[in-house]
Amino acid sequence: MIHPNKKYKMELKVEDLDRYYVKRRKARVLRFKTDKKILNNEDLRNMAKALKLTKKTQKLEIIPQGNSCHVAERGISYLSEAIRKVSSLRSIFINFGWCGYEDVFDESSAALWILNQGLRNLKNLQNLNLSFEWRFEVTEKELQRFGKVLRSLISLQKLHLTFDVCNYIDGEKLAKLGQVLEKLVGLQKLGIMFNGCSDLTDEGLKMFSEYLKKLTFLRSIMLYFRFCSEVTNIGKDYVWNTLKSLEALGGLKEKQMRCE
Predict the structure, then answer these.
(1) Could you give the percent of the chain with pLDDT greater than 70?
(2) Crossing angle of helices 73-84/110-119, nearest 10°?
(3) Main-chain dihedrals φ then ψ at residue 53, nearest 5 degrees
(4) C-alpha pair distances (Å), 132 with each of 42, 118, 164, 251
(5) Which residues pair with 129 in a beta bridge?
(6) Pair (82, 176) in one structural domain
(7) Beta strands in the chain (DSSP E)
(8) Quick check: 55 pLDDT over 90?
(9) Full-model pTM
């Protein structure tokens, strides 16, 4: 018997999903991990089946450890549909970095579009952490759609996005992301990582900083843009001075910036 005030945590390997269907119905925290070298659509379908059985899950984590995958839009759609039906979710962490690495999508941003359908209108979601690292292509159009989804998450307080080694991230897309963020007035904690993005420049960081200035509602912010070959001290100063100005206004209590 599970105590009603105690979170029931379930950490499952993709390889063993078929063994736990009864127990999983009670899980409040559901974490999928795997040591498989290659993930496929069927793996994501099995994750989706498991998630659909949990009516009270509050925290979902999908953390693949493999270096490659054979996943297409269909696999992501299985997962997206399952997420949409679990209205109790308060926290989601999904690492999609492995999907972009092998260029398995005809258009990598399709994964973000499909995922949007699952995230939309999760009224209880407070914490969202998504990783799209390793050559994952994100278009300005998809960022606009993503923004609409984020605005539908009325309880969202924490947002962490990783775009490491996404060579498609430039100033225009950062500006688009800034437009999205300024409308999330309930957000308290923000983390964005775009380490190793070779298209990112000083001018791009300047554009992004103009939108950062408007995030006066934030209590904590973390920005990493290490190993961006086109960024100089000029771009770094744009961002750091913006963070200091937010801190001076009194709302921002914690700031981190890494740009070595």
Answers:
(1) 74
(2) 10
(3) -80, -15
(4) 21, 16, 7, 29
(5) 93, 160
(6) no
(7) 9-13, 29-34, 38-40, 59-64, 68-70, 91-95, 127-131, 158-162, 189-193, 220-224, 254-258
(8) no
(9) 0.86
**Whether 224 and 139 share a structural domain:** no
Structural domain boundaries enclosing 233:
157-260
Domain end: 156, 175, 191, which one? Answer: 156
Tokens of 184: 């999330």
* Confidence class for position 3, pLDDT limits 50, 70, 90: very low
Q: What are phi and psi of 128, to 5 degrees?
A: -130, 125
d(CA 97, CA 133): 4
**Beta carbons of 8 and 27 less than 8 angstroms apart:** yes
pLDDT the model gives residue 64: 67
Lowest mean pLDDT among 139-143, 213-217, 250-254: 139-143
Question: Is pLDDT larger for residue 108 or for residue 229?
Answer: 229
- pLDDT at site 2: 30
State the average pLDDT over residues 44-65. Answer: 81
Identify whether residues 193 and 67 lie together within a single domain. no
49 and 165 co-located in one domain: no
CA dist 164 and 253 (Å) reads 26
Environment class of residue 28 by beta-carbon count within 10 Å: exposed (0-12), middle (13-18) or buried (19+)? middle
Q: Are residues 188 and 108 in the same domain?
A: no
Look up the CATH number of the domain holding residue 214: 3.80.10.10
Same domain, 33 and 152: yes
pLDDT tens digit string along 13-40?
555 555 544 455 566 888 877 666 667 7
What whole-number distance in Å separates Cα of residue 135 and Cα of residue 169?
Answer: 10
Q: Examine the domain organization and report whether 126 and 255 are in the same domain.
A: no
